[in-house]
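Q: My labmate handed me this sequence with no annotations at all. I'd like to see what the chain might look like in three dimensions before we decide whether it's worth expressing. Could you predict it?
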Amino acid sequence: MSFSKDVKEELSLQTSNARHCGLAELAAILSYSGHIIGSKSNYFLKLQTENLVVARKYFTLIRKTFNINIDMSIKTNFQLNKNRIYTLIIKDPETVFKIMQATKLPFERTFDRTKSYYMKKTADQESMVSHAIKTADSLIVQNACCKRAFIRGAFLSSGSMSNPKKSYHLEIVADEMEKAEQLKNIIQSFSIDAKVVMRKKSYVVYIKEGSQIVDLLNVMEAHVALMNLENVRILKEMRNSINRQVNCEAANISKTVNASTKQIEDIIYIRDSVGFGDLAEGLEEVAKLRIQHPEASLKELGAMLLPAIGKSGVNHRLRKLSMIADHIREHKEENSHDNEGNSN
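A: Here is what I predict for the chain of 344 residues:
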């Protein structure tokens, strides 16, 4: 089972004793997954989903809140990898109208045909039209608890979440900008930075930061999923921290080795060119120790000296040796040019 399905499974088991919270969650489910089929004079309410969790939660909310029965059918869609489609229908127009009123869903505006599409003809040859349910009234989410329930219903209906082991991404897809903006504002009321982007003909409310997704799971009361996500985040942060530390140490080692190699090259050049006889006593001692202990750090070299000196003191002497080597090289190059000029 995917992480997204785990979250939805947990959310489906969340129930509120408060009727207003149940109505808020039901309003979100209907707004994001429901349709009114028919006309203003003859209609029924239909919810269709491939997710058993959503169907079960919707069925439970309707039974608990309104104490009515729902017709439910299960079909297998052979065009979509043989996925099952769960269809829940409420046929009584008065009951449908009662549900729409209680959930603060705009019944009249739902029959706006700009967002509808025609179904197959009925036995009496009248075309049945499917109308997407419009955005819920803000009155349904006045309380913080109702906002939590509404977000939960929206995620159950059309939300998804990526595997946190790979990336952090949670999104909820809406068919209208108005719905997406409403949901974004509700989520932002919990100090979570939700954003909206258009994808083809849909509007996607999304969150990409791990800590913000954790906060949203807490808002929706998916506490088990929250703990699982936190465990993944801790492991990823530990791995990233270890990788950064290893990379830093590798970089430091590489830097030390490169510096040591250059120092030894300069010291050997001095030795082979003019010898150590003209070097000051402190420089000669450091030069010999550097050749004898190429892997030693500056601090370790300083401790070998008598009397011992600090890291900065050793570094100062090694820089002097490099300057002397450069000076010898320049002097040799000048002599070489002079000799070439004289020969010409």
